[in-house]
Amino acid sequence: MRIARRLFLSISALAALGLMAGPGHADQASDAAQTKKAAEMVDTSAFKKDGPYKIGVSAGYLANSWVVFALQHVRWEASKHADVTNVIVTDASFNPTKQISDIEDLLRQDIDLLIYWPVDDSAIASVLKRAVDAGVPTVQAGGGFSDTPGTVSNAYISQWTLGEMVARKLMADLGGKGKIIAMLPIAGTTAAVDQLDALQTVLKEFPDVELVSTEYGDWNRAKAKQITENLLQRFPKIDGVFSPAGQMSIGIAEAFDEAGRLGEVTMSPGDEYNGWLKWVAKHGQGGAVTFPTRAGQEAVKIGMAILKGEPVKRGVAVPSVYISPAEISKYADMEAPDDWWSSELPAEFLPKQ
């Protein structure tokens, strides 16, 4: 199966598309503070130890295809290190209490490094701190950015930057006017909070665009579709949709299509979820702003540096890039299932279909 090539987009191209940030956004203060915090160097000498190493992976959920691909990136990178002898994976199935128990169980198995995706950051903060206090470094993979005492470092995707890129492309495609809805991930998560803040910041520049409803689809195609079906009953006119997650975007598009209203709506870019890429290839609309699954691989790289006692940044950003509808066919795999992700995983590490 063809694996999509690495995604590149020059700064000049982003500027030409209107996806670069405009001047003087006061609401970017928190994002700027996060970027500054991520650049801080962490002394990891206390975690230095000789191999062999055992990596524990606490997944808040493995029902999400993005996490499945990110996990395969973890395994791929781990395979490149002869001193990594085992990768132990747990699945909390969206249950914060179970994730606490999972991490405690991993610690009892004498892991040397913990990589995690949280269900709820605050719920697992104390058990992560216990791991660090016990000499087990922790690295968050993907999601947002955490600077709590229980997180040594992050391989993170800036949800604010992603949200801004998606919002600016949507504004450009709408011509700066119309009524829109927003479909965000799990309420209260960094992803949801930062994406909404980015959208609201961009909307300040477009007074003729009205956000009529903000919803939370939990990165779930079926739930996003059901929510949209209800919104279509409430609102006789919806001109645009802000939805950075491809899983939810395809569900939204299906709801509009089945209601006979697909022709009235402008979809924002989603991400590189294959079902969405195939939809964009067919309809020539929206494009994608990537949410790279290789965040899992970056987390292992950070973790191995920590175990060698090397200083690391508090956070390493995995950048999002824009793919236009005209370019989408290079990344969409029309023969692969919808729950597939454009990535550079070698064939032996691709998830089983």
TrEMBL record:
Belongs to the bacterial solute-binding protein 2 family. It comes from Oceanibacterium hippocampi. One of its GO terms (molecular function) is carbohydrate binding. Pfam families: Peripla_BP_4. The lineage of its organism: Bacteria, Pseudomonadati, Pseudomonadota, Alphaproteobacteria, Sneathiellales. Its main location: other. One of its GO terms (cellular component) is cell envelope. Keywords: Signal. Coiled coil: none annotated. It is found in: Cell envelope. The keyword Signal applies. Residues 1-26 form the signal peptide. PROSITE patterns: TAT. This is D-ribose-binding periplasmic protein. Residues 55-310 form the Periplasmic binding protein domain.
